[in-house]
Every structure is written in C-alpha cells, then in structure tokens.
Design brief:
The chain is mainly beta. Helices cover about 5% and strands about 45% of the residues. It has helices spanning about 1-15, 380-385, 425-430; strands spanning about 30-35, 40, 45-50, 60-65, 65-75, 80, 95-100, 110-120, 125-130, 145, 160-165, 175-180, 185-190, 195-200, 205-210, 220-225, 235-240, 250-255, 260, 270, 275-280, 290, 295-300, 315, 320-325, 330-340, 345, 350-355, 365, 375-380, 395-400, 405-410, 415-420, 450-455, 460-465, 470-475. Strands 1-3-6-5-4-7-8-2 form an 8-stranded mixed beta sheet, with helices on one face. Strands 10-14-13-12-11 form a 5-stranded antiparallel beta sheet, with no helix packed on it. The chain has a 5-stranded mixed beta sheet with strand order 15-16-17-18-22, with no helix packed on it. A hairpin with a 5-residue loop joins strand 31 (about 395-400) and strand 32.
C-alpha cells in the first residue's frame, strides 16, 4: 500500500513520467507480480506490479474485460492505468486484466493475462441528454443540434412516446422516434445529436401513441379522432420508411384509437375509449384505407371495474405472447395473453397494482400501488437468460409513473414492482419530485416522466421528463 501511495503522489506531480521514456528492455524478461486493487468501478486507478515494463506509456496496452484502460504512466516496475466505464463481461462482473508490451515498431512483444480477475462494480446514474428552457422554465420546438443553450439548435417541448428504430444495425446512426400528443412525429439522432420533425400535426386530431409494423418499414399512428363508435374518420394513419416517414396517409376508419399493436401475421389490435374496449381489426382483404365496421371486440375493461373509458396503451411482449395494458385512468398493469388458435387477445388479469386504488407502494401483485402509468417497455434481463425461468420469459417491464409517482418502475414477470429510479431523498424536504441527476435511487428525481425507451446496444434507458422539458438517461457508467 505504501508503494501505491508513493506512486500516486508521483503520478499527481508527473515527476516520474517526465523522465526519458524508454520501452521495455527486449534483452530481459518482463515479469508480472499482481495488480491492485482487485475491485472497483469506472475511473478506478489500477496498479500493475512487476518488472521491466519500461517508462513509455505508448508502448504499454492494458485492457480490463477487453476494454482499453487508459495508461497514465509507468516507472518500470509499476504501471498506472485507469479503468474505463463498463469494463465487465457477463453478469458476475469478473473481468480479466491483460497487458501487452510493444516495441518501437508497434509489434506485441509480451502478452500477459492475470489469473486473477478485477471485479467491476457498476455504478448506475441518471443524467441529462439535453434540456433547453428560458428563464421561466419554458421550452420551444426547434430543429437542429441538441447542443447549445436555449434558442440555439434543436429542442423538444414534450415527448409522450419513444421508440428506437427497429431496423438498426451496427454502424448505423442510433435513431429514437418521438411523438407528441398534438405536435407531430420527431426523429432524434443520438449519434449526431440532432432533432428533426418528420411531420407536424396536420391530418390527425391527436396522436396518442405510434408503433412499427413487424418488418420495421411502416409506422402506424393511433389517433383520438373524437368518434365513439362510427367509422367516418380515420383512427389510424401510416408512414413509410421509403418516404423517410415524412408523409402520413389514412390507414383505417373507425372509433377513436389510443394505441395499436401489430402481430407478425398482420393482425392489428387497438384500444378505444367507450368502456375501454380492445378490438381486433378486420380489414377483410380490402385496400387501404378501409372502414373497420366489422371489428371484433376482444374485451372491455368495464367488465373488470366500473369505468366509462380509458386512454389505453397496449405494449406487446417481444415474443408476441401477450400484451401489457396500462392507462392513466387505471392504477394497475394488466396482462392479456395472445391466443394463436383464435387469433384473439384474451380476458386480462392483473399483474401488479389495484384497478382503482392509487398511491405509491412497492410490492408484489395487488400489494403494489401506482399513480398514473404512462409509457412502458419490455427489457431483457440477462439473469433470466443465464438462469432460465420456468415460464421461459426473459423480460422485465419498465414503466413511467407520472402524476403521484414521478418515477420509473420495474415490474418482473411475477408482478414484483420495485422503484427503478426517482423519488430520492424524500426525507430531506418532504418532496419526491424535482430535476436532479445522479444515482437512480439515492439522488435522482423527475417530475411527471412520460416517454420511455431502452437502447439495448449500450444498456441505456431514455426518459422524457415532461415538467422540465428534458431528455434524461439512466445507464451504468
């Protein structure tokens, strides 16, 4: 420990590394003793002990779990490096430490991997992608870059629903699509950090949500057209990838629609207001657009509890086994299984929460209490993959808790509801809301989070914080 302490001081002064930089002596063996510490997280300083390392950091490469650790310097017997974020592999976070020595030609002369591993301790954090407001906390829409202050570049006033481009492949720009209740469809390019509006609110009355068809080439927009039961106005519109999703056309005529799910066989199910009904669309081979006069009712939520209607969101499980049902008017998460034989969604059951009793309480099944649930997504849990569940399900459900909750919920397939982020430090000021970044459960706060999406390529959640006009993120650093 004394050696490490002295080395740290010399590093801070850069005295040791201002000497002549020389590579490892090729006429002598390179030896490795150990490294310290053997656990830590991002930016942990790791010291590799041995001999004949040379003093030129450009001739030394260190990786932890295959991710390059920045080499700060070497005095010949101790290499000082810094661990990068997410330097782990697998679910146990035990990461191999490898050192390579290079000659003047850049050739590897020594390649050594320690038998011991570095245990990476991931640190979760909530941060901000962008937030641009004036002195009164107001925001205005603009196309352009995320970067800059209010009045410069791009900005977003609100996001009710978020979906990542389903046709992403490695090397593409990472595109996140966003809808606003009454202001159109947007494309957020997270790679180039800019925003553009694909189409404004023109033909439709009020876009509640949108979804992609299974091939990823068509967006279906659900419209609250104000019609209770007739088929005089469009209740769905569509936009094509081949046209850059910039033009919308009527897809079907029917009662007001709040969300739609598309099955691989082409069937579409949608939710309407009256009695909170779920319908199966019946196109009957007719050309688009068509009047959905022969729609089939799967069930209504009024069959479960006294309710006149609800702004229902249907969220399809990635394996198309079932849908989850959430709505601001109900205080629970419902599950409706898909019956492949009848091609119908079946009568739902409660996964977690209580249909009419709100509040905030973590718990299992009916013991959980939610406020307004707004937007939900399924996220693969690697633990379920490595240790398969009896039902074969591999996904947890994350959902934004808007009014009353101001948080992100995590719900397991067994209905165990726990807080994933937000509501931190309530004991300090008696509040659960606010605009605070940091540890998801110890520091972070939101106020009325709405849109929610998950980027599986880098394990990052994106949350739109409605009250603060901010696109937030949650990830492991």
């Amino acid at each position: 420990m004394c050696c490490c302490g002295l080395f740290l001081v010399s590093c801070s002064d850069n005295a040791e590394f201002e000497k002549a930089l020389v590579p490892s002596d090729a006429s002598k063996p390179v030896t490795f003793t150990n490294f310290t510490p053997n656990e830590g997280s991002m930016r942990t300083r790791i010291y590799i002990h041995g001999s004949n390392f040379g003093t030129d950091p450009s001739k030394i490469q260190v990786t932890v779990a295959g991710k390059e650790a920045k080499v700060i310097g070497s005095d010949g017997n101790i290499i000082h490096a810094q661990v990068r974020k997410r330097s782990y592999s697998g679910v146990n976070y035990d990461s191999p430490v490898n050192v390579k020595m290079l000659n003047d030609k850049g050739e590897v002369t020594t390649d050594y991997t320690f038998d011991e591993t570095f245990h990476y301790t991931p640190k979760w954090t909530v941060g901000t992608v962008f937030r641009k407001v004036d002195e009164k906390g107001n925001a205005t829409f603009a196309e352009g870059s995320f970067d800059g202050k209010f009045g410069e570049g791009g900005n977003l006033v609100c996001s009710d629903w978020l979906i990542f481009d389903p046709k992403y492949k490695e090397g593409d720009d990472r595109l996140l699509f966003s809808s606003n209740y009454d202001q159109g469809l947007y494309q957020l390019n997270l790679t180039k950090r800019d925003i553009k509006r694909l189409f404004p609110r023109t033909q439709y009355k009020s876009m509640q949500t949108f979804t992609f068809t299974p091939d990823g080439d068509t967006i279906i927009c659900s419209d609250d057209n104000g019609q209770a039961s007739n088929c005089t106005k469009p209740n769905m519109y569509y936009a094509l990838r081949s046209e850059g999703f910039r033009k919308i056309r009527p897809y079907a005529y029917g009662p007001c629609t709040y969300s739609t799910v598309c099955m691989p066989n082409g069937t579409k199910f949608y939710a309407s207001w009256t009695n909170a009904a779920i319908y199966r669309q019946e196109p009957e081979g007719r050309p688009i657009p068509f009047a959905d006069e022969n729609r089939t009712k799967c069930f209504t939520l009024a069959q479960i509890s006294q309710i006149n209607g609800a702004h229902i969101r249907l969220v399809m499980h990635p394996a198309h086994k079932y849908v989850y049902i959430i709505a601001p008017q109900i205080r629970c998460i419902l599950r409706s299984n898909y019956n492949a034989q009848t091609n119908m969604l079946e009568y739902p059951t409660v996964v977690a929460g209580n249909f009419s009793q709100g509040g905030f309480a973590e718990g299992t099944g009916g013991a959980a209490r939610f406020g307004q649930l707004w937007c939900g997504i399924f996220v693969k849990n690697q633990d379920y993959v490595n240790n398969p569940r009896g039902d074969g399900d591999e996904y947890d459900f994350y959902v934004t808790g808007k009014d009353e909750n101001d948080c992100i919920w995590k719900v397991t397939p067994d209905g165990v509801a726990t807080l994933a982020a937000g509501r931190s430090n309530e004991s300090k000021d008696g509040q659960t809301w606010g605009y605070v970044d940091g540890d998801p459960l110890q520091e972070a706060r939101f106020e009325q989070p709405k849109g929610l999406a998950y980027d599986e390529t880098d394990q990052t959640w994106y949350i739109y914080d409605y009250n603060y006009h901010a696109l937030r993120y949650m990830t492991v650093e």
